[in-house]
Amino acid sequence: MTTQDYGKTDKGEAISLYTLRNRNGVEIAITNYGARVVTLKTPDARGRLADIALGFDSLKGYEGPNPYFGAIVGRYGNRIAKGKFSLDGKEYTLARNNGENSLHGGLVGFDRVIWSGKTEESNGVQKAILTYTSKDGEEGYPGTLKVSVTYSLSNNDDIQIDYLATTDKATVLNITNHTYFNLAGQGNGDILSQVMQINADHFTPVDSGLIPTGELKDVTGTPFDFRKPTVIGSRINDKDEQLVLGKGYDHNYVLNRSGNGLVMAAKAVDPPSGRVLEVWTTEPGVQFYTGNFLDGSAVGKNANNYAQRTGFCLETQHYPDSPNHPEFPTTVLKPGEEYKTTTVWKMRFVEPAK
Ligand code: GLA
Question: Is the peptide bond before 75 cis (omega within 30 degrees of 0)?
């Protein structure tokens, strides 16, 4: 476990990098700039390590324009329609940064603020703990919000992310992590031949602004059915209205669950390396995004240009635009309540395909 300098922001603020390493060689590095995952090295069955997270070689890259590589997004992961919602009879107007909508917290979301950070180790589990206080009115959201995000790495190759928050006024909240994974290793081509399984009978179809229509649509007989492991690229270019609107997969899945505990949301496999990622969560949904907006413009690690669909995200979350959909699980947090969610990335491997 190490803490290193990670350079200074354009404004001269000193930034740190926290690196956790377990005895199997799994390594995760997190910066307090946006609480972002900068490196995620995992072994395959032959013990070969690859960095499976898209990102940059230095802080400069993260400060420049980029689509939330590795970031914690908040206060509200994904979109709020027209940047407006009402709570207790009062209308709130948010920063709009995605056409007429508010996306991933607004203009300066949690991905672009400086968190306080520290590391801790107990019983073989290494932790990077990041905290941030978001001021009342920040990006238009009510309430002073105290947030903590803890990344823990254990020797069984689980990376657990615990999210906690409290507020002093009623507000809405939906925090997630936006890491782009490529199980073949970042920069190693697209993710279209990787295999995905998603534990969901339904997804939330969207309109042309990628706002949920409110319908929970049955995946049966559609290219959205990932209940059995399916090659990501096998149906991605089908003439399906929802795939056309998303330019690929960019949709929230309604996870099959009973109760509020951890369930497996998704499992991805890269057959040639055998690398496996399982995502478990206490959240009701997961956004499966296939990097459709990546266009090669960001020069990433080792000068790799990340072209379209060279990474996928599995953003565990409440459904997009929930504050405007009373029929969806609530995202309201009130004073005296504790926001508490957990997501686990289980880094595994199987024998590579021949
Ligand atoms: C999310 C959204 C996408 C896109 C990316 C960031 O996953 O659903 O539409 O905005 O973030 O580029």
Answer: yes
Quote the CA–CA distance of 334 and 164 in Å, as a whole number: 13
Catalytic residue positions, numbered: 178, 315
Probe target for ligand 1 pocket from 293, 295, 316, with the most ligand atoms within 8 Å of CB = 293
Model pLDDT for residues 51-64, shown as the tens digit of each residue: 999 999 999 999 99
What token pair was written down for 4?
Answer: 């290193």
Tokens of 274: 């055998």
The rounded Å distance from CA 352 to ligand 1 centre is: 31
SS3 label, residue 82: helix
Residue type, 187: G
Task: State the DSSP string of 205-226.
Answer: -B-TTS-B-S--EE-TTSTT--
Tell me how far apart the alpha carbons of residues 285 and 78 are, in angstroms, rounded to a whole number: 12
Tell me the pLDDT tens digit for each residue of 305-314. Answer: 999 999 999 9
Give ligand 1 pocket residues (Cβ under 6 A). 67-68, 78, 103, 210, 250, 287, 289, 293, 313, 315
- Interatomic CA distance for residues 210 and 342, integer angstroms: 26
Edge-to-edge strands of the sheet including 49-51? 2-8, 14-21, 27-31, 36-43, 49-51
